[in-house]
Write a structure and sequence with these properties.
- The chain is α+β, with helices and mostly antiparallel strands.
- The chain is built from six helices and ten strands.
- Helix 2 crosses helix 4.
- It is globular and about 45 Å long.
Length: about 220
């Protein structure tokens, strides 16, 4: 789990991007609930196109200067009908990619809200049964851009070693669970799908093998 300082450092890294990309969007304050859902789809698909693990939607940063201004947007108070915004967004996002929402106290008077959105995996991410993607600075229906759609499916169909089904399935994660627990990080079975440790049939993939107690290789981790 990120600390507030971790989140500040991540935002500062993202602010160094020269312009908004297929996987990164800055907003000052509130946009419509529908817009947020469409951004989740577009940024997830854009991250897959560009080989990024996550896309980001950040409230409280100027989209032109990348200056941190802070935001008044409070997703916890936002409703869609009688439903909380977060629940509504997760219900209409398909497949369930497990995006996270973070509140960041950037400074005493500047608060940010960041959506961390996993890249599409195996199929394009949809919102309310429609697929979106960013073309230049604009959010578009994916179906209207067949060349981009082909590129996305090509990216999704590339299977890496980590995504391939592990030959060993009786895996345990005692060491990693202890390390995660010592750092206040929840590493439980509920996180396996979110961390992309399962293949499309719910079996452990080679990423899970590399993280398990049965890992036959030496693995180096980078923390940033």
């Amino acid at each position: 789990m990120y600390s507030n300082q971790d989140l500040i450092e991540l935002v500062d890294i993202l602010r160094t991007e020269e312009t908004e990309t297929e996987w990164l969007e800055f907003k000052l304050n509130y946009v419509s609930n529908q817009d947020i859902g469409e951004y989740i789809s577009a940024l997830s698909n854009g991250a897959a196109l560009k080989g990024r693990p996550f896309g980001y939607l950040i409230f409280g940063v100027d989209d032109k200067t990348h200056e941190v201004t802070g935001t008044t947007f409070d997703y916890r108070k936002q409703k869609q009908g009688n439903e909380d915004l977060e629940n509504w967004l997760k219900r209409l996002t398909d497949p369930k990619i497990g995006f996270m929402i973070y509140e960041i106290q950037y400074s005493a008077l500047k608060r940010l809200v960041m959506f961390e959105i996993p890249a599409a995996f195996n199929q394009p991410t949809r919102f309310a049964r429609r697929e979106y993607v960013r073309i230049g600075s604009y959010r578009q229906d994916l179906i209207k851009h067949p060349d981009t759609e082909k590129q996305l499916w090509y990216a999704l169909n590339r299977v890496s070693y980590e995504q391939s089904t592990s030959s060993l399935q009786n895996l345990h994660f005692k060491a990693l669970t202890l390390i995660a627990g010592s750092r206040g990080i929840d590493f439980s079975e509920e996180k396996f799908a979110t961390l992309r440790m399962l293949d499309t049939n719910g079996k452990f993939n080679n990423l899970a093998l590399l993280l398990s107690d049965k890992n036959p290789l030496i693995v180096k981790f980078a923390v940033y």
